[in-house]
Specification:
Serine Threonine Protein Phosphatase 5, Tetratricopeptide repeat, about 475 residues, 22 helices, mainly alpha
């Protein structure tokens, strides 16, 4: 279980971590409280031994206590009515909730409603304090943890600096919500979003997949996952998730634009990207940005076609230039003409480079480029075969090992992927980040992903309005 960040800013740790986590401390505080209570209290007498005036006094105190609770509920009702009547009545609602708290400090509803009011007014510090007070009264309330997390998140967003401590606090609250309700899509979504904003991309992706296993038909969640995959460099994965979202919401122009943007970063997807930009423009013809996207990509495609033509002419002039064939192969791959791109790589391998001091480099690059092309085609077996040939020529090239590790991970062979990531790290900087992730976040590299196997769908997910 994650430890709470050490901070003086929030003094409510004991109430939110609960008896399970800080049992000894809770027991100690409870003992001190009971002892002090006994020391301050006078011995009570049986009712029969009390004088008539004493009995009346006790009954009057009990009646006063009950009256305060009833009055507190009345002020809560008044606060609710003030909010419903007009936004101009928010100040009165705040006073009513405050009065209710003064009358009955242990009333969960008054703290919760006051916190929500402060949240709507973007008074983050006050909202955070009231959510914390509500959690003191009911520490196992999933929704209170989620709302506190979003309040912390909004406070970070409203400040000029990125407060890492507040982000960790928000992540902690989401983890608490997940602990309380492990099958709650809302709690997992809260955690996924907080992890993503905290740059814990791999764990955030795992959490988003957990959300999708619970609510598979939610286009918003699919879009968030796609954006996160794109940020992590997995453009093909992002494209797949955008396509799922579009299947659910085919008339959403912004989803078509997002898919088009993702496709522009995947080699060989120019035509599909242009088609998606045009679909977005068709759905929203008055959008100037959509029109610029279509025009820009059209110019880029024309420029690529011109570049391919120029490289072809250079190769015709000097057909024995391995670098020219490799440049042409790279542009053909970008265009999506994979067959012609592989043919150019094969020409490099058939050249007589006996007198070329860079022969091994060009050979390695031809194998590597062929492997990349096959990977784009999703021919992972063929890609691995070509990359092994490249490693045979240049065994100390870290980028080649990193590329092999990515394919192995994509195939699900995590143990072999770990080995290649390790070699990539030894021969270069590439690979260390993924190796660290698997050794620290996923302690068992052979353990299934959280999204493997059938999910446990719930009827619906409450998407927070935060």
């Amino acid at each position: 279980m994650t430890d709470r960040p050490d901070t003086k800013r929030y003094t409510h740790t004991i109430f939110r971590t609960g008896l399970q986590r800080e049992g000894a401390r809770w027991a100690f505080l409870l003992a001190v409280y009971l002892i002090s209570f006994r020391l301050e209290s006078k011995p009570s007498l049986p009712s029969a031994q009390l004088s008539g005036s004493s009995v009346a006094q006790v009954e009057r105190k009990s009646s006063d206590h009950h009256s305060k609770k009833v009055m507190a509920l009345e002020y809560i009702r008044r606060g609710d009515e003030s909010i419903k009547t007009s936004l101009l009545q928010l100040a009165k609602a705040e006073r009513d909730y405050r009065t209710a708290i003064q009358l009955d400090p242990e009333n969960l509803q008054s703290h919760e409603k006051l916190a929500d009011l402060y949240y709507s007014e973007q008074e983050w510090d006050e909202a955070i304090d009231e959510y914390a007070e509500a959690l003191r009264l009911e520490s196992n309330n999933e929704w209170l943890h989620v709302r506190l997390a979003y309040a912390l998140r909004r406070k970070v967003a409203s400040s000029n600096t990125d407060d890492a401590l507040l982000r960790e606090e928000a992540i902690f609250e989401c983890r608490e919500a997940v602990r309380i309700s492990p099958k709650s899509a809302t709690s997992h979504l809260c955690l996924a979003e907080m992890l993503g904003e905290g740059k814990y991309l791999d764990e955030a992706i795992e959490e988003f997949r957990q959300v999708i296993s619970l609510v598979p038909e939610n286009a918003t969640v699919l879009t968030e996952l796609a954006q996160l995959l794109s940020d992590s460099g997995n453009k093909l994965g992002a494209v797949a998730e955008y396509r799922k979202a579009i299947y659910i919401q085919p008339n959403n122009p912004y989803l078509h634009q997002d898919l088009a943007n993702a496709l522009t970063h995947v080699d060989g997807q120019f035509d599909d990207a242009l088609a998606e930009f045009r679909e977005a423009l068709k759905l929203k013809p008055d959008n100037a940005q959509f029109r610029r996207n279509v025009d820009d990509l059209t110019r880029r495609e024309n420029s690529l076609d011109q570049g391919i033509e120029e490289e072809r002419n250079r190769v015709l002039i000097n057909s024995r230039d391995p670098e020219g064939h490799l440049r042409l192969a790279s542009k053909l791959r970008e265009k999506g003409d994979f067959v012609s791109a592989i043919a150019e790589c094969q020409k490099v391998l058939t050249l007589d480079m006996a007198n070329n001091s860079n022969a091994s480099y060009y050979t390695m690059m031809a194998y590597s480029e062929t492997g990349a092309i096959l990977q784009d085609k999703q021919d992972l077996e063929g890609a691995m075969a070509e990359l092994k040939k490249a490693v045979g020529v240049a065994p100390n090239n870290g980028e080649l090992h990193n590329q092999m590790a990515q394919i192995l991970e994509q195939r699900g062979d995590l143990r072999a992927a770990l080995s290649e990531y390790g070699l990539a790290g030894v021969f270069g900087k590439a690979g260390y980040e993924r190796l660290f992730y698997y050794l620290n976040f996923r302690q068992n590299p052979e353990a299934p992903s959280v999204n493997s196997g059938p999910g446990n769908p719930v009827p619906e997910m409450k998407v927070p309005h935060y």
